[in-house]
């Protein structure tokens, strides 16, 4: 039942929801620029450094749908406050961490907090604002704050790392999270879905998350232990078994499954999730390796690296805006193909970066091409996903798109990092210069990332043929919010 909230309380509610979403999205990107400083400060190996990103991403993806269901059934304000406090507490633990294990565990707890907070913010807004123009405006502001979080993350991460140290990229969440939780008790009215039984698919969330962690761990350790080692094979097999258990739970055993397998009968929805999975695999790796190249090879300071990402974010925004207008005229498939091919082309240009290169000569042009392609692609792929299901399942389709992107990013980063590290270590063993060895490793990673993007275009060509532009246009406004 929609909560009755005084008009005077709607603005504070909107502000709190937007601040929380901003913080959650911020922590996806804020660590990228700080990675070299984190590696130096806690003595991370090149292989394990990616877990600073993936620990957050995997738990966020694995528990996102469960977080949304918990908000509906247990109370949206209760879950919102609980998630904020968990996020703030995990940020504090991560900020004072003195070893790899503590920081990675804290980042995983942050991801769990984010998976609770993010869907709760959206649920709070949809129950606070009446359907129509007021809700659309609120969702537009919410989506813009998510985009601003991604934009601000790289820049703020560079500023904090350079001026006061990398630990402050985590400490900054503590006062914000606590203040938002306290204010929520006053300005957000409790609401929950009435008439639904309290069935939580915890088993589904846990098995899919642990399965992905096991697979990523196996891929990462293969560079150290070898693909034939018992540790690597056991981890990979265990991960596959857990994913199979997740599918069995969703298909046969869960009373209220996180991902009802029947929804995947939609060819359009399934294809859209495959594409966004590949898009995430290419994009997460791109942000990761560009940040390392700028600082470890070109010698940029964290602030300079953060500023270098601003044109990329602006290019994403321009691409999204253009796509939201053109999709009503040309439909989903052509724009999606163009966007994925633009990403592939830009990533191949990144594969030509030089150990003696420059930002203007080696980074700017491919970064604008990749980011613009991402913006162009994500709007139509979201429209395809949302248009492939009935209106009552739009929330589930939206959650699946987000989950697929995060999971694709985690697995893609593991693969790309393993490819790059293996090649770099081989060159260092042959006594090549560090800058040359690093850059050549990045080359390999960018080529594989370009392959991910190209495969996404192939799926768009083969599986999205015949979708109707008229129906796609009806979903455009919602997809722009989702894309942000």
Task: Describe the protein.
There is one protein chain. 81% of the residues lie in helices and 0% in strands. The protein is an all-alpha fold and 484 residues long. It has three domains: 198 residues, MFS general substrate transporter like domains (Growth Hormone, Chain: A, Up-down Bundle), CATH 1.20.1250; 53 residues; 223 residues, Growth Hormone, Chain: A (Up-down Bundle), CATH 1.20.1250.20.
Helix and strand run: HHHHHHHHHHHHHHHHHH
Gross geometry: globular
What's the number of structural domains? 3
Query: Hey, roughly how much beta strand do the residues contain?
Result: under 5%
Gyration radius (Cα, Å) is 21 Å
CATH hierarchy, class of the largest domain: Mainly Alpha
What kind of sheet is the major sheet? none
* Low-pLDDT stretches: 1-8, 469-477, 479-484
Q: Mean pLDDT across all residues, rounded?
A: 84
Structural class: mainly alpha
- CA distance, first residue to last residue: 28 Å
State the fourth-level CATH superfamily of the largest domain: MFS general substrate transporter like domains
Proportion in helices? over 70%
CATH architecture of the largest domain: Up-down Bundle
């Amino acid at each position: 039942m929609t909560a009755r909230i005084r008009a005077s309380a709607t603005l504070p509610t909107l502000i709190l929801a937007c601040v929380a979403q901003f913080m959650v999205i911020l922590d996806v990107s804020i660590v990228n620029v700080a990675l070299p400083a984190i590696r130096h400060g806690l003595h991370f190996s090149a292989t394990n450094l990616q877990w600073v990103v993936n620990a957050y991403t995997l738990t966020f993806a694995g528990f996102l749908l469960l977080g949304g269901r918990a908000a509906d059934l247990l109370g949206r304000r209760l879950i919102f406050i609980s998630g904020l406090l968990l996020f703030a507490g995990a940020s504090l633990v991560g900020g004072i961490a003195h070893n790899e294990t503590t920081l990675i565990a804290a980042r995983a707890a942050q991801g769990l907090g984010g998976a609770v907070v993010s869907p709760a913010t959206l649920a709070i807004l949809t129950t606070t604002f009446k359907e129509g123009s007021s809700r659309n405006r609120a969702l537009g502001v919410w989506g813009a704050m998510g985009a601003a979080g991604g934009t601000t993350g790289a820049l703020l991460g560079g500023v904090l790392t350079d001026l006061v140290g990398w630990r402050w990229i985590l400490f900054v969440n503590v006062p914000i999270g606590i203040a938002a939780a306290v204010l929520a008790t006053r300005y957000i009215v409790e609401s929950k879905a009435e008439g639904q039984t309290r069935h939580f698919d915890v088993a589904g969330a846990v098995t899919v998350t642990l399965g992905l962690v096991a697979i990523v761990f196996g891929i990462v350790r293969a560079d150290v232990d070898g693909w034939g080692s018992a540790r690597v094979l056991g981890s990979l097999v265990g991960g596959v078994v857990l994913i199979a258990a997740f599918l069995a739970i969703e298909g046969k055993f869960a009373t209220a499954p996180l991902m009802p397998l029947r929804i995947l009968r939609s060819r359009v929805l399934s294809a859209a999730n495959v594409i966004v999975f590949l898009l995430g695999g290419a994009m997460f790796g791109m942000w990761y390796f560009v940040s390392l190249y700028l600082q470890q090879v070109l010698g940029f300071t964290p602030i300079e690296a953060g500023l270098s990402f601003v044109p990329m974010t602006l290019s994403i925004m321009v691409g999204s805006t253009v796509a939201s207008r053109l999709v009503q005229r040309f439909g989903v498939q052509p724009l999606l193909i163009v966007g994925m091919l633009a990403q592939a082309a830009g990533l191949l240009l990144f594969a030509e970066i030089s150990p003696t290169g420059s930002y203007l000569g080696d980074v700017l042009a491919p970064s604008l091409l990749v980011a613009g392609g991402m913006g162009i692609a994500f709007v139509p792929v979201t429209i395809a996903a949302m248009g492939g299901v009935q209106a009552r399942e739009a929330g589930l389709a939206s959650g699946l798109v987000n989950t697929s992107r995060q999971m694709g990013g985690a697995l893609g980063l593991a693969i790309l990092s393993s490819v790059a590290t293996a090649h770099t270590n081989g060159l260092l063993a042959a006594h090549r210069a560090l800058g040359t060895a690093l850059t050549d490793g990045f080359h390999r990673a960018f080529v594989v990332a370009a392959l991910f993007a190209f495969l996404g275009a192939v799926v768009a060509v083969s599986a999205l043929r015949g979708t109707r532009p008229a129906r796609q246009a009806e979903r455009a406004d919602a997809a722009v919010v989702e894309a942000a």
